[in-house]
Amino acid sequence: MIDRRLTVLRMLAEKGTVTATAQALSYTPSAVSHQLKTLSEDVGVALVEQRGRTLRFTAAG
């Protein structure tokens, strides 16, 4: 089974924003943010970084 958090990460790459990702997956924006945070914690490296209201992928992401 593919981890849902990887699906969220992939969709963020496609859609570009947390809001669009949430809409595409029928999640709330806070649920998307939480999924990204827990995935980063589990792999031990930041996958995205927040700059103001914008998320950007890190080199690891």
UniProtKB/TrEMBL annotation:
MF terms (GO), sorted A to Z: DNA-binding transcription factor activity; transcription cis-regulatory region binding
Statement: the UniProt record of this protein carries the keyword RNA-binding: no
Domain of life: Bacteria
Keyword Coiled coil: no
Keywords noted in UniProt: DNA-binding, Transcription, Transcription regulation
Every HTH lysR-type domain range: 1-58
Record-linked InterPro entries: LysR_HTH_N, WH-like_DNA-bd_sf, WH_DNA-bd_sf
PROSITE patterns assigned to the protein according to its UniProt record, in alphabetical order: HTH_LYSR (PS50931)
Gene3D superfamilies linked: Winged helix-like DNA-binding domain superfamily/Winged helix DNA-binding domain
Family per similarity comment: Belongs to the LysR transcriptional regulatory family.
Protein name as catalogued: LysR family transcriptional regulator
Species in which this protein is naturally found: Brevibacterium senegalense
